[in-house]
Design brief:
about 290 residues, DNA polymerase, domain 1, 2 domains, seven-stranded mixed β-sheet, about 35% helix
Length: about 290
């Protein structure tokens, strides 16, 4: 196992821990390098950096941009690592992606109300530390907390995926735009958790090709939703397409998901770790002294 975790979420988007609490957990689990990659916002980075400095946890600025891709309107996530959080183009781009989240949440709540689940909008908002970032994870926590469903995994399967009562599609960023914002902010763009996407071999290779053509440089090989077969599959694709490889748990909350913070599988030997060329952008406690 490696203690590098470059995919984490806080209350600034849909995580359950504040940025400071997240860094404390990283320190307790002896993480050697972490990145905060909240969905479509940079709000938690300053707090996370400050906490990481104090705790001695090496830190990379990050973000995860929501993208709508292809003729099937597939939702894809692109992580940006080593970004400049003061980048105007990135900030403006993310603001455009966030628009419409509250309207979408009201539609999700209306869909749940039609099957007898009342109060979902207010219930989800109560779990949301940043109202403009309300999303499916907040509805999932409301449904579990109110006793409608036993766990978050079941919520998504029954209510919050395409074709289910609480699912509402949304038009996110264009792939080339998302990669462009990350590059303009000095960061490296990474295809997040590729094993989660409902794409066959041909479409996956098309996605990677378009991503590379836009300037993308890396893909998540080790992550919380990848088993060993997925990990080796994407290691081979990284090698074939000359991409760097990343590792991240996609941690959101204690007890949610398949992997705790700071615990990802070692990258296969054929991989080139994304954090090596990012070494000059890793922020450490020593830089504050």
């Amino acid at each position: 196992m490696t203690n590098v975790d470059l995919h984490l979420h806080s209350t600034a988007s849909d995580g359950a821990l504040s940025p400071s609490e997240l860094m404390q957990r990283a320190a307790e689990r002896e993480a050697e390098l972490v990145a905060l990659t909240d969905h479509d916002c940079l709000r938690g980075l300053e707090e996370a950096r400050a906490a990481a400095f104090v705790l001695g946890v090496p830190f990379l600025n990050g973000v995860e941009v929501s993208v709508t891709w292809g003729t099937k309107q597939q939702s894809v996530h692109i992580v940006g690592l080593g970004i400049d959080p003061d980048s105007t183009s990135l900030s403006q781009g993310l603001a455009s992606v966030r628009q419409g989240r509250i309207d979408r949440a009201r539609e999700m709540a209306a869909g749940l109300a039609r099957i007898g689940i009342e109060g979902a909008f207010d219930g989800a908002m109560a779990w949301c530390g940043n109202p403009e970032m309300i999303g499916r994870a907040h509805f999932a926590r409301f449904l579990v907390g109110s006793g409608h469903v036993k766990d978050v995994r079941t919520v998504f399967r029954k209510y919050l995926t395409p074709g289910k009562p609480g699912y509402v599609p949304h038009q996110w960023a264009v792939l080339a735009d998302a990669v462009g914002w990350i590059r303009e902010a000095g960061g490296v763009a990474v295809i997040a958790h590729p094993g989660r996407y409902d794409l066959g071999r041909t479409l996956m290779e098309r996605l990677i090709t378009e991503f590379k053509d836009a300037g993308g440089e890396a893909i998540e090989v080790a992550c919380g939703s990848h088993g060993l077969d997925d990990m080796h599959k994407f290691a081979l694709l990284a090698q074939r397409f000359d991409l760097l490889s990343s590792a991240g748990s996609d941690y959101h909350a204690p007890g949610e998901g398949g992997r705790d913070l700071g615990r990802t599988d070692d990258l296969p030997p054929i991989c080139r770790p994304v954090w090596i060329p990012l070494a000059d952008r890793i922020l450490t406690h020593q830089q504050t002294n």
